[in-house]
Amino acid sequence: MIISVASGKGGTGKTLVTTNLAASIGEVELVDCDVEEPNSYLFFPNREGETSSDCTVKIPVIDEDKCTRCGRCSEFCAYNALAVFPQDVLLFKELCHGCGGCVLICPEGAISEGTRPIGKIFRAGSGDVRLLWGELNVGEPMATPLIRSVKAEATGDLVLIDSPPGTACPVIEAVRGSDFCLLVTEPTPFGLYDLSIAVQVVREMEIPCGVVVNRSGMGDRGVYDYCEREEIPILLEIPMKREIAEFYSRGVLFSQEMTEWQERFAGLIARIEEAIR
Ligand code: SF4
Ligand code: SF4
């Protein structure tokens, strides 16, 4: 079962939920797909066997001696990643999506496939939890190939995906293929607005979803009324408590200190199984 944890925006408690859930259920793979700012692994300081490898994407390599500057590759590229000048051909690497089309279209066989690194994939273990995370190179605009590669490494029976914030392409790539999506929100008008957009996205992708209300007890009833109206189950509420925030700010999993929460997080999995049955 693949469960993704998402939220319409950052700072709602997505990582708080994912990490505490992973630590409470054990025998799970936690995949941090927030590749611009991965931080789930920091909550597991006793990591062991950490390894890493480069994540690369394909790029065209042009043989200037064979190239006749015919311009076919530039005309073909839908991403405007190639520009042909009388003297040479320029590749804008950041725009290239590595589709390989220019390699096939070149009449002179002047283009071959090379690779360029866009980030790193990390792996480690912490007790029963296997940690996987991606780290995008600074200035690299394309997160989705790295997200895809990190997800591909998760092959266990239970996979938890910590998605990037927002509702743009990286989130869609992270959530794609999930059996269930947990949407973390806070009970405020801002939380409601972002939640409603996230719900539209996962419904469009035909992924069943449920809500975790973080910092419950603050704000208003808008999120609760919305969930009732839209028939979205609220599966867990985490109250607005100073000690929970303090544990989080110190990089400590609050469920390990306030142990009654381990059962509550474990119960969340049972409720998800019930919801998708
Ligand atoms: S299609 Fe091939 S020959 Fe034509 S400009 Fe591009 S690389 Fe050169
Ligand atoms: S591989 Fe695809 S995206 Fe990249 S330059 Fe060639 S045609 Fe454009």
Automatic annotation (TrEMBL):
Organism of this sequence: Methanothrix harundinacea
Name used for this protein in its record: Iron sulfur cluster/nucleotide binding domain protein
Domain 4Fe-4S ferredoxin-type, chain residue ranges per copy: 58-87, 89-116
Gene3D superfamilies referenced in this protein's UniProt entry, alphabetically: 3.30.70.20, P-loop containing nucleotide triphosphate hydrolases (3.40.50.300)
Pfam families: CbiA (PF01656), Fer4 (PF00037)
Gene Ontology molecular function: oxidoreductase activity
InterPro entries with a match to the protein in the record: 4Fe4S_Fe-S-bd (IPR017896), 4Fe4S_Fe_S_CS (IPR017900), CobQ/CobB/MinD/ParA_Nub-bd_dom (IPR002586), P-loop_NTPase (IPR027417)
